[in-house]
Specification:
CATH architecture of the largest domain: Roll
Number of helices: 5
Radius of gyration: 18 Å
Number of domains: 2
Largest sheet: 5 strands, antiparallel
Structural class: alpha+beta
CATH class of the largest domain: Alpha Beta
Helix content: 10-25%
Distance between the termini: 7 Å
Number of strands: 16
Order of helices and strands: EEEEEEEHHEHEHEEEEEHEE
Shape: globular
Strand order of the largest sheet: 3-6-1-16-11
Strand content: 35-45%
CATH topology of the largest domain: C8orf32 fold
């Protein structure tokens, strides 16, 4: 499937910003599940300082702001050819060792609620166990927008019983790691069946299985990623793979607007 994507991010400020440094992860890479035919990132109101691949293999760009600009605009767009691999993303590559993806983070620490999920997740094979875990999380945590935020941990979302795709992914990571699997967070895009316009990127999780490599699980939709998914970045949790992050000096108030379109 060939997908056309546009991702617009606009930061507006009510006063000049003395200095800001933003880290941008908005460039998809080719691999087993996708081929990048074209992709551009245009930036207004800021200056690109550096681009590199981080230790997770993500295309990363640093942009800086200083002086008068009251607005920063980042537009990432292009066309991606995707393939349905039944969720299998392929062998592990990159500088980060597999054992790093078995380590807990602040957002993915497995408390009693996450560990309870592991006791109900068992199957004849590792892949069946992980699909069972995904189903158990979906049954425990309803998809509800607005009740969690970027700082909500897996255990907190489980206690609430509500959350979004980021929370589902974090819970899966916490429980899968407790079961002994290396697991990682994936941010990207999903072509929806009933809407072209979106206000946020999508998120899912991957677990590493011997003999298969990385296998994806979209808990929110109860499936493994197919040709409707485009990968952008991976990491131990959301903070490692978030599209933009950074620091800002001064007292200016910030307003963020995001508009995404994904269409065939």
């Amino acid at each position: 499937m060939r997908l056309k994507i546009s991702h617009r991010t606009r930061y507006s400020y009510d006063a000049p910003v003395p200095y800001a440094l933003q880290r941008v992860r908005l460039v998809p890479l080719g691999g087993a599940t996708q081929t990048v035919h074209s992709w551009t990132v245009s930036i207004e109101g800021a200056r690109e300082e550096l681009r590199f691949h981080d230790h997770f293999g993500n295309d990363t760009r640093l942009i800086s702001v200083s002086g008068e600009p009251h607005e920063i605009s980042i537009v990432a767009s292009g066309e991606i050819e995707t393939r349905d691999t039944s969720g299998v993303a392929g062998a592990h590559t990159g500088f980060a060792p597999l054992w790093l993806f078995q380590q807990e983070t602040g957002l993915t620490s497995a408390g009693s609620l996450a560990r309870d999920l592991t006791s109900t997740s068992s199957g004849a094979s590792e892949i069946e166990t992980l699909h069972g875990l995904s189903a158990a999380i979906r049954a425990r945590v309803d998809y509800v927008i607005g009740v969690t935020d970027a700082g909500t941990s897996a255990e907190e979302a489980l206690a609430l019983g509500r959350g979004v795709c980021q929370d589902h992914a974090h819970i899966f990571l916490a429980a899968a790691r407790a079961l002994g699997f290396p697991a990682r967070y994936v941010s990207g895009y999903l072509m929806l069946d009933d809407a072209t316009d979106q206000v946020a990127t999508h998120a899912w999780a991957e677990a590493h299985i011997d003999g298969l490599g990385w296998v994806g699980f979209d808990v929110s939709n109860g499936i493994s990623p197919d040709e409707r998914y485009v990968r952008i970045a991976t990491g131990r949790d959301y903070r490692d793979a978030m599209p933009t992050s950074g620091i800002r000096l001064g007292s200016a108030q910030e307003a963020l607007a995001v508009h995404i379109t994904v269409e065939q």
